[in-house]
Amino acid sequence: MPGCYLDRLTDCLKRREALVPNPYSGRINRVDLDPDSVHTLVLWSKNFGPFLENDRTFHDYRLYFLFTINDMSTLEPNIPPLEDRLAQLRELALRYGAERVGWRFDPVVFTHDGPIMIPDTFRRIAEIAVESGLTRCIFSFLNLYGKVKARNNSLKLGIVDPPLSQKQDYASMLLELAGEIGIDLESCCEPEVDVPGIAHSSCIDGVLLSRLVGEPASIVKDSGQRKDCRCTKSRDIGSYRDMPCPHGCRYCYANPVIP
Fold first, then answer.
1. CB–CB of 216/227 below 8 Å?
2. Would you put residue 97 in left (φ > 0), alpha (ψ -120 to 50) or beta?
3. Bond prior to 107 in cis (omega within 30° of 0)
4. How many CA atoms lie within 13 A of 67 on its CB side?
5. DSSP letter (8 states) at residue 218
6. Which of 27, 44, 96, 115 is the most exposed place for a label (fewest CB within 10 A)?
7. 3-class secondary-structure state, position 128
8. Among the listed residues 27, 33, 38, 102, the one whose alpha carbon sits nearest the alpha carbon of residue 66
9. Bond prior to 21 in cis (omega within 30° of 0)
10. Rounded CA separation 128/133 (Å)
11. Strand 63-68 with 114-115, pairing
12. DSSP state of 20
């Protein structure tokens, strides 16, 4: 929503409510967006350019940003160039404080030739993140859901699910680089990738949000997520059905607009 449907998001905030269709039944659920009812508005995107150009609507809310930054132009054809996104990262940290920005380096995608994102990619982004004041990076490996497998076959992308040992080696390499650069490395929903020094993290982290705001947020596990997901309870106001993403990422598990 911050990158592609900002107008819908700002309209919801102005109306102080979001009407969200259930993805299975279609039933409409109302989410209260009165600032006094919202602990933190967590914004998640690969492109915060539109948001940074029009963030006045958000000033009544406490914000936390999850910024997915990697460099896979062949699989992510419609997102801005890496240098533009690194500039956005700097600006988010400057305006809102680096402690309110989390960098996600995901998904890590493998082909028959190995991982698409090479160590230099991680190093480049991590150095800018640390310069901007960020202290942690969250990574995960691509899950080959049914839609992903079908698209992988039809587009002949060559994506594979590597053996666990290869994932462990890649994670260990990231950990070594993160230590050199000075950023903590955390994994998202990767219980099998158990590398000492890599914490198992969560995207929506009630403990972190409580600390940032100074008021308690829910720390109850979100029952609507995958079994191994550690995210705490939240309300999603987006819709894969009504908001197909035009970024066109070819590995997307949702409902993207594939060019």
1. no
2. left
3. yes
4. 32
5. -
6. 27
7. helix
8. 102
9. no
10. 9
11. unpaired
12. E
Strand positions, DSSP E, 154-244: 159-160, 184-188, 199-201
Q: What is the DSSP letter of 72?
A: -
Instruction: Say how far apart CA 238 and CA 240 lie, in whole Å.
Output: 7
Beta pairing class for 110-111 and 114-115? antiparallel
Residue 184: strand pairing partners? 136
What does the pLDDT profile of the chain (259 residues) look like in tens digits?
Answer: 999 999 999 999 999 999 998 777 778 999 999 999 999 999 999 999 999 999 999 999 999 999 999 999 889 999 999 999 999 999 999 999 999 999 999 999 999 999 998 899 999 999 999 999 999 999 999 999 888 999 999 999 999 999 999 999 999 999 999 999 999 999 999 989 989 999 998 889 999 999 999 999 999 998 888 888 889 999 999 887 788 888 989 998 876 777 6
DSSP letter at 46 equals S
Q: Report how far residue 259's alpha carbon sits from residue 253's, in angstroms, rounded to the nearest whole number.
A: 15
**Residue 204: count of CB within 10 angstroms of its CB:** 22
Which amino acid would we find at residue 137? C
Tokens, residue 140 = 């995960």
CA pair distance 19, 32, nearest whole angstrom: 9
The token pair at 210 is 């409580």
Report which residue type is found at 249.
C
